[in-house]
Amino acid sequence: MIVGMLLLVVAGYFAVFGGDYNIFDLRRVKAERLAEEQRAAIAQVEVEQLRARRDSLATDSATIERLAREQYGMIRDGERLYRFADPARDSTAPAAPPVTSGH
Question: Pairing with 97, which of 18, 36, 50, 84 sits 20 to 30 Å away (CA)?
């Protein structure tokens, strides 16, 4: 009787804390699975967005024109393109005079 109870306690302990798949490993694997499912859902949203962009580039001339204007600075005949440069980055702006001390 005592041997049977002892075996039952040992088996219970081994089931919870021992073996290849103890309760801690199962919790870790479950957390990893949830994280992977979230990453897969995010990737699926990104794939759908890329498919929509691909389809609009393949079929929508307004999208192509907007892309050509924004990224490549293309214009239609008769239009003028105005670009505004950042003065801090403009290499044609005159340099500031050097600072000298009045000694």
Answer: 84
Which stretches within 1-103 are classed as H helix?
Answer: 2-17, 23-59, 61-72
Q: Would you say residue 95 lies in a domain?
A: no
70 part of a folded domain:
yes
* Per-residue CA distances from 62 to 33, 58, 67, 73 (Å): 42, 11, 9, 15
The count of structural domains within the chain is 1
Tokens encoding 72:
């490549």
Structure tokens at 17: 């804390």
Tens digits of residue pLDDT in 38-73: 999 999 999 999 999 999 999 999 999 998 888 888
Judge whether 62 lies within some domain: yes
Asked if residue 41 is part of any domain, the answer here is yes
- Residue written as token pair 């003028």: 80
Going 76 to 82 to 85 to 91, the CA torsion angle's sign is positive
Q: Could you list the residue range(s) of the whole structural domain that residue 67 is in?
A: 23-75
CB-based contacts of 32, cutoff 8 Å, min separation 6: none
